[in-house]
Amino acid sequence: MLYFIRHGEAASSWDQSTDPELSELGRKQAQHAARIMKEEIEPISIFSSPLKRAQETAAPLAEYWNSVPKIIPNIAEIPSDGIPFDKRREWLNEIMVSGWKDQADNLLEWRNGILDIVKNQRGDAVFFTHFMVLNTIVGAIDNVDAIMSYRPDNCSILKIDNSGSELSIVDRGLEASTVVG
Q: What's the predicted TM-score (pTM) here?
């Protein structure tokens, strides 16, 4: 089983900071997600995006399991290189209502990097990552071209069965009308 956990609430929004830490609420959400995982499964491999909010979300579970998360750059948030902060929200809104067939090469490479991680993971693992990464995974499994196909809440736990020849979604986790941040 693969568990993909969206980071807790960030201290600032995506269009204000490239790498914000967790807010106080985000830290509480991370503790809650860690308790759920600790009660549900035995210790397995932990992976995290290199961004602070994902690493901080992974920290409580890593502490419970006396583990150190392995950092995987491929599961970082959608690349927005060169887009000024005051234009990021507009850019992301445009991306979110479009399909993959309409995207630039750098976004397709980012998507392929995520899907390679998911498809090639052998054994159970927990990944701490981001809103758009989770959408990329769900869209690929559901075989839809839409970039945004669901709204995972902060610290939502997406469960994917990787035991067969095809990946399948076991549980999408909590969904909410959330601001990407």
A: 0.94
